[in-house]
């Protein structure tokens, strides 16, 4: 048996932030060495909520930044294949072939789609957005992915993929492995505003590419316990984003416990808690910054990785699509018609 394949990735909508890190990048960094790893730059998925010309013009730049961020976070370029989804039209072919293996009511029950429709200001669900999980199934199955590390909001998409794969195999024969979801163990990271999960559209992010001064400024402006008007007022640790980040990013557990205790007792100011968080976050981000600087010095590296990865993936996808068409009997339908045309002496020039 060859090594199992992992597929993961993001839509190219902007730079990656700490929420991405906690939700999936950390898992990817940990897992990518163990598998044959593919990283999709899912620009066709981006179109389901952002499809203006300006959005599309930014894809190339965003793709480059995203790959840079993933490499800076610790993915080894020698062990990962990056590819641009829209450059592989055969993914769309597979999407077409898979879309009858799932029902509309099933897709309507996928919670993330309603959220995405709402967040993008759409009143009614675009057809493509309803099909988002089917296209994702095409992505995963076109490289016969077996392991899919994604954030929580993507769990239902992987479940739909499993259903489609099973259904395909039952109907047409065993073509696809049933992919496995690998979910982050940390729940999604709250934004700096404490109101919702970290997301670019809410402007409550800390980016993997933020410099130390920016991180510090963002941390000092973070939402904390609003009832705490003075340092001697006992504060709430639970649901406080400053402590949520301490829990995830500050490896000095003793310090975190001490801060929590003094916070609850009204014996520490918000400023000290935030200062220490800024230090912890910058320590966490420093190695990422160093790797980023090296990647950025290596001119053309990222573009080359995307080009080579896309070509390699396209070869894989073509093979899978051929196999799928054969398993479904679609190739033989056309062959029959062509043979009959030939027998009748009406074969067209150029037919293969
Ligand atoms: N849905 C993912 C996101 O939230 C992107 C994506 C598209 C993906 N196809 C995928 C992730 C296949 C893992 C596997 O941005």
UniProtKB/TrEMBL annotation:
<keyword id="KW-0067">ATP-binding</keyword>
<protein>
    <recommendedName>
        <fullName>Tryptophan--tRNA ligase</fullName>
        <ecNumber>6.1.1.2</ecNumber>
    </recommendedName>
</protein>
<keyword id="KW-0547">Nucleotide-binding</keyword>
<feature type="binding site">
    <location>
        <begin position="151"/>
        <end position="153"/>
    </location>
    <ligand>
        <name>ATP</name>
    </ligand>
</feature>
<dbReference type="Pfam" id="PF00579">
    <property type="entry name" value="tRNA-synt_1b"/>
</dbReference>
<feature type="binding site">
    <location>
        <position position="189"/>
    </location>
    <ligand>
        <name>ATP</name>
    </ligand>
</feature>
<feature type="binding site">
    <location>
        <begin position="19"/>
        <end position="20"/>
    </location>
    <ligand>
        <name>ATP</name>
    </ligand>
</feature>
<keyword id="KW-0030">Aminoacyl-tRNA synthetase</keyword>
<keyword id="KW-0436">Ligase</keyword>
<dbReference type="InterPro" id="IPR001412">
    <property type="entry name" value="aa-tRNA-synth_I_CS"/>
</dbReference>
<comment type="similarity">
    <text>Belongs to the class-I aminoacyl-tRNA synthetase family.</text>
</comment>
<comment type="function">
    <text>Catalyzes the attachment of tryptophan to tRNA(Trp).</text>
</comment>
<feature type="binding site">
    <location>
        <position position="139"/>
    </location>
    <ligand>
        <name>L-tryptophan</name>
    </ligand>
</feature>
<dbReference type="InterPro" id="IPR050203">
    <property type="entry name" value="Trp-tRNA_synthetase"/>
</dbReference>
<keyword id="KW-0648">Protein biosynthesis</keyword>
<dbReference type="InterPro" id="IPR024109">
    <property type="entry name" value="Trp-tRNA-ligase_bac-type"/>
</dbReference>
<feature type="short sequence motif" description="'KMSKS' region">
    <location>
        <begin position="197"/>
        <end position="201"/>
    </location>
</feature>
<feature type="binding site">
    <location>
        <begin position="197"/>
        <end position="201"/>
    </location>
    <ligand>
        <name>ATP</name>
    </ligand>
</feature>
<dbReference type="InterPro" id="IPR014729">
    <property type="entry name" value="Rossmann-like_a/b/a_fold"/>
</dbReference>
<comment type="subunit">
    <text>Homodimer.</text>
</comment>
<dbReference type="InterPro" id="IPR002305">
    <property type="entry name" value="aa-tRNA-synth_Ic"/>
</dbReference>
<feature type="binding site">
    <location>
        <begin position="11"/>
        <end position="13"/>
    </location>
    <ligand>
        <name>ATP</name>
    </ligand>
</feature>
<dbReference type="GO" id="GO:0004830">
    <property type="term" value="F:tryptophan-tRNA ligase activity"/>
</dbReference>
<feature type="short sequence motif" description="'HIGH' region">
    <location>
        <begin position="12"/>
        <end position="20"/>
    </location>
</feature>
<keyword id="KW-0963">Cytoplasm</keyword>
<dbReference type="InterPro" id="IPR002306">
    <property type="entry name" value="Trp-tRNA-ligase"/>
</dbReference>
């Amino acid at each position: 048996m060859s090594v199992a394949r992992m597929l993961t990735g993001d839509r190219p909508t902007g730079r990656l932030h700490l929420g991405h890190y906690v939700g999936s990048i950390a898992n990817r960094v940990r897992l990518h060495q163990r598998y044959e790893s593919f990283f999709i730059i899912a620009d066709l998925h981006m179109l389901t909520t952002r499809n203006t010309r300006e959005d599309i013009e930014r894809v190339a730049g965003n793709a480059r930044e995203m790959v840079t961020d993933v490499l800076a976070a610790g993915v080894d370029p020698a062990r990962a294949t990056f590819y641009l989804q829209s450059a592989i039209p055969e993914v769309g072919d597979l999407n077409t072939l898979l879309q009858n293996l799932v029902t509309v009511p099933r897709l309507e029950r996928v919670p993330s789609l309603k959220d995405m429709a709402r967040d993008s200001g759409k009143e009614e669900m675009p057809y493509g957005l309803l099909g988002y999980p089917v296209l994702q199934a095409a992505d995963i199955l076109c490289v016969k992915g077996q392991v899919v590390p994604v954030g929580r909001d993507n769990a239902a998409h992987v479940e739909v993929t499993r259903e489609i794969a099973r259904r395909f195999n039952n109907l047409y024969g065993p073509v696809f492995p049933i992919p496995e979801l690998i979910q982050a163990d940390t729940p999604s990271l709250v934004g700096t505003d404490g109101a919702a999960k970290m997301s670019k559209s809410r402007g409550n992010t800390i980016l993997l590419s933020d410099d130390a001064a920016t991180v510090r400024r963002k941390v000092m402006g973070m939402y904390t316990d609003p009832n705490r008007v003075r340092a001697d007022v006992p504060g709430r640790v639970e649901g406080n984003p400053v402590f949520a980040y301490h829990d995830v990013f500050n490896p000095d557990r003793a310090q975190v416990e001490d801060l929590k205790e003094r916070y609850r007792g009204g014996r520490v100011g918000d400023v000290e808690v935030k200062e220490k968080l800024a230090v912890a976050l910058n320590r966490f981000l420093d190695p990422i910054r160093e790797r980023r600087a090296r990647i950025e010095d290596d001119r053309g590296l990222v573009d080359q990785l995307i080009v080579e990865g896309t070509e390699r993936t396209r070869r894989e996808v073509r093979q899978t699509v051929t196999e799928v068409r054969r398993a479904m009997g679609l190739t033989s339908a056309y062959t029959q018609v062509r043979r009959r045309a030939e027998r009748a002496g009406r074969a067209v020039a150029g037919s293969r």
